Amino acid sequence: MDAEQQLQAIKQAKVLMVGAGGIGCELLKTLALSSFQDIHIIDMDTIEVSNLNRQFLFRQSHVGQSKAKVARDAVLRFKPHINITAHHANVKDPEFNVDFYKQFNIVLSGLDNLDARRHVNRLCLAADIPLVESGTTGFLGQVTVHMKGKTECYECQPKPTPKTYPVCTITSTPSKDQFEGGGGGVSLPLARNFSLPLARNLLTGTISLSCLVHPCLSFSHLCTPVLGCFILFVHCIVWAKDLLFSKLFGDKDQENDLNVCSNNATSSSEHAEDVFKHILDEDIEQYGRRIYDHVFGYNIEVALANEEAWKNRNRPKPTYSSDILPDKLIQQIGNLDNGATDDPSSVSAMGSLGLKNPRDIWNLEENTRIFLEALKLFFGKREKEIGNLTFDKDDQLAVEFVTAAANIRAASFGIPLHSLFEAKGIAGNIVHAVATTNAIIAGLIVIEAIKVLLCDTNSYRMTYCLQHPSRKMLLMPVEPFEPNKSCYVCSETPLSLQVNTHRSTLRDFVEKIVKGKLRMDFPLIMHGSALLYEVGDDLEEDMAANYAANLHKVLSELPSPVTSGTVLTVEDLQQELSCNINIKHREEFDEENEPDGMLLFGWTQAPPMNMDNSLPV
Amino acid sequence: MAEPKTKYDRQLRIWGEQGQAALEKASICLLNCGPTGSETLKNLVLGGIGSITVIDGSKVEAGDLGNNFMLDESSIGQSKAKCVCAFLQELNDAVKAKFVEESPEALIETNPSLFSQFTLVIATQLVEASVVKLDRICRRGNVMLIFARSYGLTGLVRISLKEHNVVESKPDHFLDDLRLNNPWPELKQFAETIDLNVTDLVAHKHTPYVVILVKMAVEWAERHGGCLPSTREEKKEFKEFLKSKTIALDEDNYKEAIEASFKVSTPRGISSNLRQIIDDSAAEVDSTSSDFWVMVAALKVEFIANEGDGEAPLEGSIPDMTSLTELVTGFVISSAVNLSRTLLLSSYDSETIVLLYTYKTDHCQLSCRHYVNLQKIYQAKAEADFLVVEQRVRNILKRIGRDLDAISKTNIKSFCRNARKLTVCRYRLIEDEFNSPILPELLKLLTDEDYSVAVGFYILLRAVDRFATNYNRFPGLFNG
Ligand SMILES: [Zn+2]
User: Fold this and answer.
1) Most buried of A293, A302, A414, B360 (most Cβ within 10 A)?
2) Please, what's the b/e burial string for A551-587 (b: 16 or more CB within 10 A of its CB; e: otherwise)?
3) Which residues in chain B touch residue A172, judged by CB atoms under 8 angstroms apart?
4) How far is A59 from chain B, CA to nearest CA, in Å?
5) Quick one: pLDDT band at residue B429, thresholds 50, 70, 90?
6) Residue B467 Cα, gap to closest chain A Cα (Å)
7) What confidence score (pLDDT) does residue B50 get?
8) Chain A, 455-494: which have a CB under 8 Å from a chain B CB?
9) Which A-chain residues 112-151 have CB contacts (< 8 A) with chain B?
10) CA distances from B375 to A154, A226, A292, B321, B326 (A)
């Protein structure tokens, strides 16, 4: 390749980088050193302490600041004459629409979650801009080139559903493990043909449940050594994090199983409606103890009342805070006033209780203290956030609360307790990350990007960075896969849906298919020219009322009836994705095997795991 | 700060506290801080290496700015080592960073003892003659050396040290240590307490496959003159035999047993790799031997030949078994409504979910118990093996005149757990590689599709270095 021509292509290129994390820092540096002149970066994250072991453009003093902006400034220090534009924003924001994408020659992605990756994929397809996608986890990494019509798109191979419970099944079924990253996690189709032991080896000795690479790689095997116990503890974590934590600190309107109280006759008025509500002027510790006694005491008693269920098994022990901690906590909360820690993100129940080592396993009393103290700190120091909090593994106080709650529940069920360090790994699905792999992957991204800019289509490679079991090589380049002809994202093949049009409502269709399977966030549903449904912030009131009414109607009774043979058009204007769905009426569905009550065809489900998959030759 | 190690959290989950401690103890010397060397140190500094010493005699020139992000315009004219060192220090204040503004080539000539203080020397872009000298210095001082050269988009890295012993080698494919081919008495006794001929389907399908295999192997041996299946025919027959014991279609534990049936037939005793290590002359220990070889010696004559019954110490952990299934809370929660009907419960609050969940896992109780018991038996055997090895180690330490407690319990335990996977790497002197390359090996690799490109570059880079040594310039430079 002519070096001058290559340099010209690089200098004229306008590049969009999404993600300024582990890969992003390395990538931005390498782009700058490779003479790229015009780079845009989008990242909504701010810098965390746990980024500093690899995201070398950031320093301790930058904690809390925008990753995109700090990264830009750091690179401009050694390359002052290039243009870098930083967007501290969510890549899914509407300002980043197709027209925005069209100004670039190439998009380079180092994102950490599936949802954003999907979004970027769809926009790149709509704008017809090539995308180089990447991911790393520990010593594993991958780079792929996605170019409309030439190679597969990011969604040609089905991806696991995120936001399900990180339940590690003891069997080798892929089930519903969670794949969200945390440090540039790999969620790419690394392999249809990746061997489990190989990947396992790279991670041996960890307790993480993160299923790094593909649904085919359920790393349940990492849960040694106390597998039996661990599995059950996972459930305590799920309970503490997804039910209790979000009930107390998250969106109050969210449907949440803890919300629904027992309808048993035994339920007294005290336990009737919202026990979780903080009564005005109620002492916070009092409130904490009320919650404690409700979830660890009363609820367990209710459960125990069903004698039948506890035959042949260990009965859980109801736990009440006054049995564990008869006296009121010492006023640690007093340090609220002396303002030593003004930064709400640094408050810690461990800190105020003098517990230091995150690897220690707290006893029931310590867990109870942490539970109450963390709750107090949330209400005392971070009250503004209550109602909007979602669990974040880098939120120390949240991790403390969840660890304590999970442990108290575990104690009540006779399950061994775990340390904060372990609990954090489980709750956060923490992805391991080191600088070296990110550096290698960033280098590969730039190599692929240069090929794309030179239109050297035949040289594109999908490259895995891994320890191959037999070949003594670190990098494994393979030719990119062709587009999947039945991919609903990048091909025009219509989908078809079997549904009982007299029984299923528009809401069922929206929730189960449009959002659940097609992953659209702002869908618009049309039947011919009739608009049936639309999501958006700027809807006319009467239209919004119309759509709301439609949601409750069964398909065949919509203003423009949907029956067998109807073709529905479903679009997401932000993702610039549109598909047609052929509707076929079907009367009966098997409740167990077809729980949705409808079946979508032309949409590929994540494949079952096959442990014997071997690497391609 | 409640969690002082937060910064290293993501990597601690890969290499653990031991790995981190090794990093933090290490002191690294970098020769020449061009882009390759600087990048290397950057990754080590971020990870929390103990200390670094950057040695480079050159000043920053305009041409350095384009390829090394640690330098900016204000660095021009200053010592490159000083600028790079300052940047690295900024990355992590826990690292002790020093620099020496002198040419590495000169130091190798004039001050060879300088290098003995380091754990590891990373030499980049050194000329051939200096590499050879440095290698000898490091070998003598027992300092590890990594030599790297990069050239455009190609490069090479060479490790050089006398011997590198790995206890936790974490190999890619390794058979679990179930000892099905040679069960010890306690495991056999446990298997005997479980009746495979129960008619209760639930009990039948929740017997761990390890138990099934131990029992079936005994039955088989009784019918085959004490021998386990070994030929292909016999192995097939053994699988059929297992299949004949299933009483329902969905017995995953039997499917697992059939899949794992080859483990019964694996040869007894230690692997050839381990045999090679214990037969190594270094296993004849004296007071100068390393801890690693003392433990190998304990393994060798003492353990394997006696208590070990020809085997290495048991690892003590067992894999997942399908006998414990259906533990999917997520599923249970999502289908809580459906299931509550079955349970005649009128509501589904969180506790109902527990009920549902436990209902669903009712069948698991039995297998859970089996699994845990089995786990205990493996752990007990591993612990017993460890205690024996520990005693042997202490005896040897006494014999060779070292402190009885010179090797910690933790280290011996880790050694036992990984005994089957020990790895010993030895490296030739770089001088030997240069002067007497193993030609047949190179020729073989050159014709191998996987390696031909890499080996081609290896030869080219060697030629470049030789050219540079002979002509005092790099090839092609006269073209501008
Ligand atoms: Zn596609």
Assistant:
1) A302
2) bebbbbebeeebeeebebbbbbbbbbbebbbbbbbbe
3) 320, 322
4) 7
5) very high
6) 25
7) 94
8) 467, 469, 471-473
9) 138-139
10) 42, 9, 35, 11, 20
- Residues of A annotated as catalytic are 168
pTM: 0.69
Instruction: Tell me how far the alpha carbon of residue A453 lies from the centroid of ligand 1, in angstroms.
Output: 22
Question: Distance from first CA to last CA of chain A, Å, rounded?
Answer: 28
Q: How many domains, chain A?
A: 3
Closest to A54 in 3D by CA, of A34, A29, A89: A29
| pLDDT 10s digits, B461-471 | 889 888 888 88
Are B189 and B148 in the same domain?
Answer: no
Give every strand in the sheet of A462-465, ordered side by side: A83-87, A38-42, A14-18, A106-109, A131-137, A140-146, A462-465, A475-478
Query: How big is chain A, counted in residues?
Result: 617
- Chain B CB contacts of A447 under 8 Å are 153
Mutate to test the interface with B, among A139, A172, A196, A235 (most CBs of B within 10 A): A235
CA–centroid distance, residue A122 to ligand 1 (Å): 9
Mode of pairing for the β-strands spanning A106-109 and A577-585: unpaired
Q: Which amino acid is at B307?
A: E
A345-392 pLDDT, tens digit per residue, is 678 889 888 888 888 889 999 999 999 999 999 988 888 888 888 788
Pairing of strands A598-601, A495-499: antiparallel
As for the ipTM of the complex, it is 0.73
Q: Is residue B179 part of a domain?
A: no
Ligand-binding site membership of A23 (annotated): yes
Inter-chain residue contact A206 with B13, CB threshold 8 Å: yes
Residue B469 inside a domain? The answer is no
Q: Does A430 touch chain B (CB under 8 A)?
A: yes
* Co-location of A342 and A381 in the same domain: yes
Q: How many domains in chain B?
A: 2
Give the structural domain span for A316: 176-427
Looking at the fold, whether A467 and A342 belong to one and the same domain comes out as no
Do both B133 and B234 map to the same domain?
no
Q: What does the pLDDT look like over B197-228, one tens digit per residue?
A: 777 777 777 788 888 899 888 888 888 888 88
In this structure, what token pair is assigned to residue A296?
């660890």
Sign of CA dihedral A376, A246, A300, A410: negative
- Please indicate if the annotation marks A43 as binding a ligand: yes
Question: Is A351 within 8 Å of B338 when comparing Cβ atoms?
Answer: no
Boundary-marking domain end, from A414, A448, A478: A478
Q: Which domain holds residue B39?
A: 10-162
Nearest Cα neighbor of B181 from B223, B228, B237 is B228
Put simply, the answer to whether A221 touches B73 (Cβ < 8 Å) is: no
pLDDT tens sequence across B370-408: 766 787 888 888 998 899 899 999 999 999 999 989 999
Secondary structure E strands in A371-522: 462-465, 475-478, 495-499
Both A471 and A407 in one domain: the answer is: no
State which residue of chain A sits closest to B376, comparing Cα positions: A226
Does residue B204 share a domain with residue B145? no
B84-130 tens-digit pLDDT: 999 999 999 999 999 999 999 999 999 999 999 999 999 998 988 99
Handedness of CA B331, B333, B335, B338 (dihedral sign): positive
User: Which of B10, B153, B168 shows the shortest C-beta gap to A433?
Assistant: B10
**CB proximity A82 to B under 8 Å:** no
CA of A17 to the centre of ligand 1 (A): 21
CATH code where residue A282 lies: 1.10.10.520
- CB-defined contacts A:B, below 8 A: 217
Beta bridge partners of B144: B120
Query: Out of B320, B368, B454, whose CB is closest to A220?
Result: B320
Q: Does A335 touch chain B (CB under 8 A)?
A: no
Is pLDDT at A292 greater than 60 in this prediction?
yes
